[in-house]
Each structure stands twice: as structure tokens, then as C-alpha cells.
Write a structure and sequence with these properties.
single chain; about 210 residues; mainly alpha; DNA polymerase, domain 1; three-stranded antiparallel sheet; 7 helices; elongated
Length: about 210
């Protein structure tokens, strides 16, 4: 069935109820819904037709986000969707049980902003999170589960100030850091040492 031909029809039953009937645009199976009033039936008709027009032929699919993500990773093993593991886990924990067609841009934006508040993230990091999941939703579009990518309209200030001011060290300060690092293990201790020593120099400047 062409999406342009999709229509929810309403008729009054002999019992006084109002019935909406239509065919699933993907499977062709007949679907019926009964309502107490004509107003309810008309609201259902309007909502259903809008959903089909905006979300495509798979609008009635039961596919969940968790299964869709599994399918996506099997098809695109090189994707960076798992690049930030804590955000990936949070996404699945939050939306895994959602039907693919239920997840909205509003849901995504709310999740990203909650993540920002919880982890004190920068605007730049928020844009990186959007990029992380862009390919997944693009895949859902290609598979006709969505007609628009919900991530596409979510953007944050790319030129916002960093969470911490950029510190530029003098040649002497860099030499001091390197000299003090020589006695530490290059595999384990140096990274931690450098961080603590750099912060000490920052405090000395303030």
C-alpha cells in the first residue's frame, strides 16, 4: 500500500459505538478500534494518519530500540555509537524498551540535558553525543522505521566557553614537570603525576 493511500475510515456501529478501521501500511493486515464517541474516533483518525505520514510504513512495528541497536551494530560494526561507553549505556538503559517509533526528539533532548546536568558536561560534549547517535537514527530511516532523523534538529552552542580555562605553561614550567616525572613509572604513574603537578602549578599561579 502506498502511504499516500493510507486512510482511517470511521463508521457508526449498530450498537452506537464508532469504529475506526484501516490497514497496516507495512503488512496489509486490517486493524479496528472502537470508540464511545465520534469525537474520540476523529481524534484517533487524525493522530494515526499523522503518525503514518511522519514516521512511515513501520509506524505500527513493535521493534524496540535495544533490538534495533543490536541490528545496527551487526550491520555497521565500525560505528562510533559505542565510542563513549557511559553515554551509550545510559541511552540503552533509558530508551532500550521504547518502540522505535515511540522515541521522539523531545525525549532525546530531555535525556541529553539531564545527562548534562548530572555530569556537568560542556556544550561541545553535548554536540559530540548527538554525533555519536546520528548514524543509528540514519540507519532507522534507511530501514523505513523513521522518516526524519530526530537528532538532526538538536544542536548546542559550538563556540561555548570550555568548562575549565585553557592553561598555557612557560618553557620553564614544562621543564619542571618533565624533570619531576623522570623518576616515575612511565606506564602507570606518569599520567596521574602530570595531572596533579599541572594542577599544583595552576594553583600556584592563582
Amino acid at each position: 500500500m502506498s502511504l499516500n493511500q493510507f486512510e482511517v475510515k470511521i463508521h457508526k456501529m449498530g450498537t452506537g459505538f464508532f469504529q475506526c478501521k484501516f490497514r497496516d501500511p507495512k503488512t496489509g493486515s486490517r486493524i479496528r478500534k472502537r470508540f464511545d464517541s465520534l469525537k474520540e474516533a476523529k481524534n484517533f483518525k487524525k493522530t494515526t494518519e499523522s503518525q503514518v505520514n511522519s514516521k512511515g510504513e513501520n509506524v505500527f512495528s513493535d521493534l524496540r530500540i535495544s533490538q534495533a541497536m543490536k541490528d545496527f551494530l551487526e550491520n555497521s560494526p565500525g560505528s562510533n555509537v559505542r565510542g563513549r561507553k557511559n553515554h551509550f549505556k545510559s541511552f540503552i538503559d533509558t530508551f532500550g524498551v521504547y518502540k522505535v517509533t515511540e522515541l521522539t526528539q523531545t525525549d532525546l533532548r530531555k535525556w541529553i540535558l539531564n545527562t548534562k546536568d548530572q555530569l556537568d558536561l560542556s556544550e561541545k560534549t553535548l554536540n559530540s553525543i548527538c554525533s555519536q547517535f546520528f548514524g543509528f537514527f540514519q540507519y532507522l530511516m534507511e530501514e523505513n522505521y523513521l522518516t526524519v532523523n530526530p537528532v538532526k534538529g538538536i544542536r548546542f552552542n559550538r563556540h561555548a566557553n570550555s568548562r575549565r580555562p585553557r592553561i598555557v605553561f612557560s618553557v620553564g614550567e614544562v621543564r619542571e614537570i618533565l624533570a619531576n616525572a623522570k623518576t616515575f613509572s612511565p606506564n602507570v604513574l606518569i599520567p596521574n603525576f602530570l595531572v596533579s603537578h599541572i594542577r599544583a602549578l595552576e594553583e600556584r599561579r592563582s
